[in-house]
Amino acid sequence: MGIVTFRFYAELNDFLPQARRQKSFHHAFQGKVAVKDMIESLGVPHTEVDLILANGCSVDFSYPVQPGDAISVFPVFEAFDISPLLRVRARPLRVIRFVLDVHLGRLAALLRLLGFDSLYRNDLSDGELAQLSREQSRVLLTRDRGLLKRSEVTHGYCVRSTTPRSQVAEVVRRFDLIAAAQPFSRCLKCNDELEDACLERVRDEVPPGVQVLRQEFKRCPRCGRVFWKGTHYRRLESLIADLRRESGASTQT
Q1: DSSP secondary structure letters along 32-55
Q2: Of 90, 93, 89, nearest in space to 78 by CA
Q3: At 75, which helix (H) or strand (E)?
Q4: What is the pTM of this model?
Q5: What is the mean pLDDT of residues 53-61?
Q6: Backbone dihedral region of 176: left (phi > 0), alpha (psi from -120 to 50 degrees) or beta?
Q7: If pLDDT is split at 50, 70 and 90, which confidence band does 240 have?
């Protein structure tokens, strides 16, 4: 039997029992074990990991753990670049796109409101979610840790919060997204980017009162739904202002 010392950093500690958080701890093992399998056996999905140091040297997921190793495990660095170090994947996601599991429909709607490409259907199986995440290079958002441990998933995040408003704040903060938000740019139903539309082309689909007050309209190229800056948009502006304050970002646009 061998003994290895682990230390997990930042939010990776959320997956550990209280006694192992924010500190080094010993872990016993037998046989030949890849560091990826050992990390997941401790409860941390591999999709949450971006850098592993074994005795101070960067290693990938296939590294065979040796007795006496000191393993440091770091979370995904989406907000800044650590490319000078060997990463456990070829490259990070810089253009963030999401796919969300069936329980996060309201979070998907809020992310689309903010302009982020967020694929969501309430009939997707775990296997389909994992496949879409891999094939389309989407970050898989879920509260199911088991789903994130599937081998085909390379980028994923376990959402800790339970309410949609807290969830969107968590995701925006985690992936440093507030500066990239483009509200009023994506269809809430289809997820497609909206196109500008003049009043003459959408007059039959817009209430008369809105026609008088509003000069800017957008249409979804897929479903044809028309959007304008009404009460819903003002609530969105308030949400963005709150997210900026929470993230410490400037309120200037």
Answers
A1: --BHHHHHHHTT--GGGEEEEEET
A2: 93
A3: strand 70-75
A4: 0.70
A5: 92
A6: left
A7: confident
